[in-house]
Amino acid sequence: MIKLGLIGFPLGHSFSKNYYLKKFESEAIENVEYDLYSIEDINLFQDLFGNDDKFKGFNVTIPHKQSVIDFIDELSIEAKEIGAVNCITIHRKDEKVSLKGYNTDAFGFERSLTPLLENHHQRALVLGNGGAAKAVLYTLTKLGISYSIVSRSSENGDMTYSELNQETIANHTLIINCSPVGTFPDIDKCPDIPYEYITDKHLLYDLIYNPEETLFLKHGRARKANTKNGYEMLLLQAEKNWEIWKNNF
C-alpha cells in the first residue's frame, strides 16, 4: 500500500482528498490511498512520514507551505524561487530518507492563464501579497508581464487599494485576485477596487473557486471583461502532483 496525503491546519472540506479518491476509483488505481493529516505544529510532520515507510508523498497547504521547507532536502527550481512548497516526494534508500519539494501552483496558474492572454495584457495588478500570491508573481515574471502588488498596507505592496484610480486600472488590463476576499461563505464581499473603470479589454482572474463566480468576477463580467476562476488551476496542479508522485513509486 502506498500512502499520500495533505498536511495543513485546519483541514475542513478538502478538494484534494475527494479529487484523488475519485481519480483512483475511476482509473482503477489500486493500492494507493490519500488522506488528510491536520497538523498544527509543523514539527510533527517528521514523525508522520518518519514512522511509516508507506508514505511516498504529500500535498502541503496553509499555513505550512513555507515552514515545511525546513524539512526538505532538495527543492525544484520553481519551489526555490517562489519560496513555497505544495507538493513533496519522499525517497528512501537503505535507511536514509530524503524529501524533495515542488510548487505545482505555478504550473496550474500558468497553464490556465496563458490561453486567455492577449497582446495588450502586458501589466498586471496583483491583489494581495500573501502566500497565494507567490506562485502568481513567479509566473508573471516568467511570462514577461510586469506587475504591481496591491495591499491594504503600503508596507506590503506597491500601492494600497485607496490609491487605485482610473489611470491605474486602464494601465493594468490583467487583474488577479490572490486575496481570500469573496471566498464562501463571504460571497457578498470583493476586493475594494474601482470596478467602474473595468472595460472589455480587461481580464480578471480569481484564485478562488468557491463560489464558482465571486463578486469580483461578477463585477468584471458586468463590465464585459473576460473572467476566470481558480478551479482549472486547482485541477492542473492536482494532476501535476500525481505525475510527480507516480514517477517516484
3D architecture notes:
The protein is of the alpha/beta class and 249 residues long. It has two domains: 2-103, Leucine Dehydrogenase, chain A, domain 1 (Rossmann fold); 106-232, 3-Layer(aba) Sandwich (Rossmann fold), CATH 3.40.50. The chain is 31% helix and 24% strand. Helix 4 crosses helix 5 and helix 4 (105-113) crosses helix 8.
Sequence-ordered SSE layout with sheet pairings:
Elements: E1 2-8, H1 15-26, E2 32-38, H2 45-50, E3 55-60, E4 74-75, H3 77-82, E5 87-93, E6 96-102, H4 105-113, E7 123-127, H5 131-143, E8 146-151, E9 159-160, H6 166-171, E10 174-177, E11 203-206, H7 215-222, E12 226-228, H8 231-246
Parallel strand pairs: 1-2, 1-3, 4-6, 7-8, 7-10, 8-9, 10-11, 11-12
Antiparallel strand pairs: 3-5, 5-6
Helix pairs in contact: 4-5, 4-8
Protein name: Shikimate dehydrogenase substrate binding N-terminal domain-containing protein
Domain Shikimate dehydrogenase substrate binding N-terminal: 6-88
Pathway: Metabolic intermediate biosynthesis; chorismate biosynthesis; chorismate from D-erythrose 4-phosphate and phosphoenolpyruvate: step 4/7
